[in-house]
Amino acid sequence: MVVALSVGLAACDGVLDLAPQASITDEVALSTPEGVQNTLVGAYDTFGGTNGYGGSFVYAMELYGSTQNEVIWNGTFFDQREVWQKNIPATNAVITGMWTAGYNTINRVNNVLSALDVVSTDPADPDRVRIEAEARFIRGTTYFELVRAFGKAYTNGDPAVNLGVPLITTPTRAIDEASNVSRATVAAIYTQIESDLTFAKNNLPTDNDIYATTFAASAMLARVHMSKGTASDYTAAANEANRVITLGGFSLEATFGDAFNQVENGDETVFSVVITPLDGTNNNQVYYASSGFGGRGDIDVADVHLDQYELTDVRRAFFHTDSGERHTNKFRNSGRNVVVVRLAEMHLTRAEANFRVTGTAAGVGGVTPLDDVNTVRVRASATPLLAVTLADIMAERRRELSFEGHIFHDMRRTGGNIDGEASTLDKFVFPIPEREILVNPNLQQNTGYN
Amino acid sequence: MKQLMRAFLVGALCLLSGQAMAQGLTLSGVVTDQSTGEPLPAVNIFVPTLNRGAVTDVDGNYSLVLPAGTHELVISSVGYKRTRQNVTLSRNMTLNIEMEPDVVGLDQVVVVGFGEVSRRDVTGSISSVTTDDIAYQPVNTVENAIQGKIAGVFIQQDNGKLGQGMTVRIRGSSSVTAGNQPLYVIDGVPAISDDFSTNGAVTNPLADLNFNDVESIQILKDASAAAIYGSRAANGVVLITTKKGRAGRTQFTYNFQTGFSEPTNKMEFMNATEYRDYFRQAAINSENYYGDGCSVVPNDPNCYDYIGDVEFYFGYMAQGTDFENAEVNSNWQDEAFQDAGMFSHDLSAMGGNEQTRFYASGHFSDQDGILIRNRYQRISGRLNVDHKASERIDLGVSVNSSRTLNQRLAADNAFSTPLQLVAQSPLSPIYIPGTDELNPNTIYYNGLFDRDFASYKTKTFRTLANAYGTFRFSPSLMLRGDLGADIMTVNDEEFYGPETADNWSNNVGGIGFNTWQQSVTYTASTYLNWQGSLARDHRVDATVGTSMQYSDYNYADVFGRNFTAAGLRNLISAAEILGGGSNGSEYAFTSYFARANYNYKEKYLATISGRVDASSRFGADNRYGFFPAASFGWVITEEDFSASIREQLSYAKMRVSYGLTGNAEIGNFPYLALWGGNSYASLPGQSPTQTANPDLKWEQTSQFNVGMDYGLFNNRVTGEFDWYVKKTEDLLLNVNVPATTGFLSAVKNVGSLENKGWELVINTFNLTGDFKWNSSFNISSNKNKITNIDGQVITGGFINRAIEGQPIGVFYGKEYAGVDETNGDALYYVYAADGTRTTTASWSAATDRVIGDPNPDYVGGFTNAFSYKGFDLSVLFQFVQGNDRYFGGMGRFAVANGDFFDNQTRDQLNSWTPTNTNTNVPEARLYGGNGTRHSSRYIMDGSYVRLKNVTLSYNVPRTLLQGTGMSKVRLYTTGINLLTWTDYKGWDPEVDTDFIGGNIGLGNDFYSAPQAKTITFGVEIGF
Predict the structure, then answer these.
(1) What is the residue extent of each domain of chain A?
(2) Could you give the CA distance from residue B855 to residue B843 in angstroms, rounded to a whole number?
(3) Which of B441, B680, B892 sits opposite A323 (nearest CB)?
């Protein structure tokens, strides 16, 4: 009987026709509107992941842009230490992760955009429009972060000549010679970014649950224009910031500390990436928070950092201490959202943009730069200023936005110094990851890394 | 194929009806052992010309009906020399036969895939190990027990944690991306040897097997031997056969042993005084090197106060104790280890009658690991039954059920893994001073909290079962069917109490994980075997058959936190369930195979075989692979011309083989474009995970083997020599692709690699008589080379790479050039195009090149066995030579001349100072990273010679046992890893850290546990 049974079983080829249980194939994935929506959610996943705003876009850029004796990498991870020391080999895992995860996000978005007809063949269908706009918000923002890290600043040399990153707007279906895409210019990437974010601004709702809104797109466009740094861009930036401030319905939290570590977005939050208790952790929290809060406590803040605050300034005390090391409170708790844009930044952006166009006089929004700066200062219990200079505005930005990943970009767009050296130096552009150079012959390495 | 099988069966039945038993004369008699005179059961008496035979019963009797005339009888039995004898029958006749024990093993039965042959007939390369080599070894797994005993097989226990990964390479690595571990077949059933670990550190599913049940292990090394396993065989095949019952009085055997283990080695770290002085100097050095400190220019924003920093940290570490007088001098290394005991009980019974035979066993063992909290318990039971239903029908079952409990530890890269304790400062008290509470204020998470407040239990339930039936159409034609199942259920229960919160960002009120995994594998095979003579002297043994395998894997997990009360560790007590998930996957193989062995006068031998495999792992167009092999043997000593030197050259057989085998260990659906699930804000998301590759096909390994079996001086010296070339084409390679595609890699058939090597075995009977001394020496060498991977560079480990023209996994990076005598800077080499080199202090400017090779040049073992009266002594030395180890993972912290506050190994005290310029250790600089980036500074020679196993035993003489009811009493003591000779500076050179590994990331040490040195005492009683 065993013999007969085993003959029966053994000679049966049908058993080979198996399908995966935990995965689906290409054709199935994008065949329904739900599939397309889920793919969009999948794009938020990497966008807000440890190599995106849930990590490198924030803490790594802070390490890269800060003064070594002020914000100190005190951990044992060598890759982060290299970023902090501004001495980054092309094999560095942090920059490699930013690049690979960034393009993973972009491919996810491109998949969404390739299947809009599945949502609805009607171009005016509200779901379709929203999905396209959210997808393009994510893509534009991701390109913005990538081009600012792996390319020279828009304001440094000729952006129409300087190399940015490869520009890819269609989903990958096969890997072949055509996959070896070369780098587009910085200007070409900015064109794509503005196109994506403008579409997002014009088509996203004002309220969109936890997802990107039209104001998130405006805020991101404000950053883009500030980065480009021409007079018309400053005006555009002021307009976008003003739109967020006046139309967005946001307000500064009465208490500075309430703007951070939120379970749900507060009044000040323009856009955040959601971290649930299930996700638990994000890399900002891991490196900024002490072990008492479940972090590694790898990023210390030195006394010298405090010198920039008045004694009454609540931002001076927004730290926790563990093992004698000082850590910022901004990313203290696990399972809390990472704020990407908050209203205070928009005030400071409007202040700076207006100042650069019209000086101390009232500009866009009918508000003076002094008013905007003092709005932020008063909330932090700092003494209101009586007059304001550009340097005051930049210093306020540093005080208000420390550790949130701005300093590197602010110094590069304004041609300032990073850690005592000119931000235009080759070392203030990430190398293209070695794995990419090895596998894609069309990719050119940044100067200083060959 | 179904039709074909049916036709075959019908044909076979026709053959049966054509066979009629001729009337004749009866030949009968008793077969006895020549040396003891005891009757021998289960001896085969076979008449090749008539395809007719008989088997002796319990009392050694046989009876055979033959026509009148002269016949040649072939008499064979396991463990005895096969003989041929002519008998002339004219009437019923009695012929008693004496058999000579076979100490050389030429007539050993060798289990091959779907059948067995005599060692004499083997033309492939097969190594055998028997129960004597394995039973009652006080080691964790069967691979440990055979380490160093088999030529051509490299076995490494990856570290000293129990039940964890073993690296087994038969004739080198045959793949870059696909699996490199051999196929394990237990009693005909391919056994699951996948890793079921949930924490990334590989575990070893073969640890579930009670190896005391093993009768023999055959290692199929060349293509001829392995090709019958086709697509699964490129890495060699390990056939494990368990014990069968024998007809006769029921024999019971009870064995007990107990012992203890300790680490093979401890490292030397700085004590409190050395640490304090060293880091003070390191801070001063940094201040001198990097510029003014803050003490010089107060409030200078560009200062960094190294000296202030070091004093601050000393104060923090000391926690109020007087570090200036070394009030605390903690030895953290000692805290990582525990006193490790072990014991085991084994009870087995075997017996039966001519119709039904059985073997039954029970096993319980409990073994402590050398690391704190590590413990492994195993309960196992087995029943093997064989039954002769009629002259034509045999059937049997074997069932093995086991349960293991492994109290596991965190992977090597976790702060909570015990050996990371060595990073703590000796100034830090282990307990809060004046209390017995653990000190939470250490520079790194104090992993001892995990010892006291965490648990990680892996329970494995495994049932291996198979049933077979054979139907004999005639003495020469047999049909056999096998059904097998390997059912494995693994439950992981992890708990981390609130006290461990510092190490778990998510830990609020304790966090717990519970994971269930189940793997169910069914196999079925059927084959027809014909043995007979085509003509006089032309013997043939032919097999044709088919088999299938289906495997189903399921996974589910749940995790939660906030446990309601201390002491409650099950998730039922978790106030907050954080999440969970489930998953599953399947694969299947179907196969058709055939083999024929040909033997002409025991002189010329040949085997051809072929297997067609189809697998669900490939697309419909590339599903089938064909794996043929052929081999030839020439027994030179059967030739007349060699008769004159028979005294000197007692036995010589030349073997040559060539064949193809495959590898399909690449995951289950690599050919499809797939999407996987993810989530954002607790909402379901999805994203592409791999692109399509419908052209994916089998990776193929061709192997040419030439070998010789020899026996010299009346077989006082015997052995084997083999030389082989193994080439793998169409590598199933995880090819890096531009990340701009959204993917990191894709599986493609790209490239090739080769393994070339040789193996030599020399067995000698040095002394015979009352005092016996036998030796067995084996050595093998394998050279691996990646011949083509399409110009790619594939990285792994810390600095391992797969590079064309190099062995797999070479270390690649900067070459350390020692210390600049003038200033204490670490130096590296810069190579010019012409090969000349200069030094530089700039790590970045140094040349990247191959700086080490983790693959050994030679491996082997040397056993000496002595016996005198009832005493037996066996001594095994095992060696590995020429493999580099990379210590950088740990070395960059612990051998880093004071870069971070990690305690340093004592050799760092020899760092450069203005008065100690002739040294290889750079100047100590706190936070200076002086020479601590990845480089050959941390590459060490991992060669070692080890006194692997010493067993001394005493058999109580039978005369003393008379009347006690006992037939055997054996007392023994065994020592494992007693001595190790090596230049390696880490804990133990037999190491491969458990958190990065794979085919490329070889030979890395990262706070990895050393091997255990074990001494046990045991008693074995037979009754």
Answers:
(1) 30-171+181-277+336-417
(2) 26
(3) B441
Burial (Cβ within 10 Å: 0-12, 13-18, ≥19) of residue B847: middle
Are residues B40 and B155 both part of a single domain?
A: no
What is the pLDDT, as a whole number, of residue B103? Answer: 64
Mark whether B290 and B439 lie in a shared domain: yes
How far, in Å, CA of B975 to CA of A61, rounded? 56
Residue B571 in tokens: 């998730």
In this predicted structure, what is the pLDDT of residue B13? Answer: 34
DSSP state of B193: -
* Cβ-contact A268, A250 below 8 angstroms: yes
Is residue B890 within a helix (H) or strand (E), and if so which, with residue range? helix B888-894
The answer to whether the beta carbons of residues B217 and B129 sit under 8 Å apart is yes
The yes/no answer to whether this complex scores an ipTM above 0.90 is: yes
Residue B669: inside a domain:
no
- Report the alpha-carbon distance of residue A68 to residue A82 in Å, rounded: 11
Between positions 310 and 349 of A, the ones with CB within 8 A of B are 323-324, 334-335
Residues B673, A10: C-beta atoms closer than 8 Å: no
Higher pLDDT, B140 or A348: A348
pLDDT (0 to 100) of residue B750? 86
**What pLDDT shows up at residue B7?**
38
Chain A residue with CA closest to B674: the answer is: A25
Alpha carbons within 13 angstroms on the beta-carbon side of residue B621 total 6
Amino acid at B60: G
The domain that contains B192 carries what CATH number? 2.170.130.10
Query: What's the domain range around B134?
Result: 126-139+141-244
Tell me the C-alpha distance between A323 and B425, whole Å. Answer: 14
| Residue B469 to residue A78, Cβ atoms within 8 A | no
Q: Which fold has domain A30-171+181-277+336-417?
A: 1.25.40
Of the candidates A40, A104, A420, the beta carbon closest to that of B302 is on A420
Query: What is residue B505's predicted lDDT score, i.e. its pLDDT?
Result: 67
How many Å is the maximal CA-CA distance in chain B?
119
Strand partners, A167: none
B13 and B60 in a single domain? The answer is yes
Q: Could A7 and B9 be called an inter-chain contact, meaning their C-beta atoms sit closer than 8 Å?
A: yes
Positions in chain B short of pLDDT 70 = 1-23, 51, 58, 103-107, 291-304, 503, 505
Pair (B527, B594) in one structural domain: yes
Rounded CA-CA distance B593/B233 in Å is 13
pLDDT band at A294 (very low <50, low <70, confident <90, very high): confident
Whether residue B60 is contained in a domain is answered as yes
- Look up residue B527 and give its two tokens: 């084959």
- β B699-712/B248-263 pair status: unpaired
Tally of domains in chain B: 4
User: Is B874 in a helix, a strand, or coil?
Assistant: strand
Q: Is the pTM of this model over 0.80?
A: yes
Helices and strands (DSSP H and E) totals, chain B? 10, 52
State the pLDDT at residue B309. 83
Report pLDDT for A63.
96
In a domain, B281, yes or no: yes
CA distance B116 to A413: 77
Domain stops at, among B568, B589, B616:
B616
B329 plus B421 within the same structural domain: yes
**Domain membership flag for residue B96:** yes
Q: Do B482 and A6 touch (CB under 8 A)?
A: yes
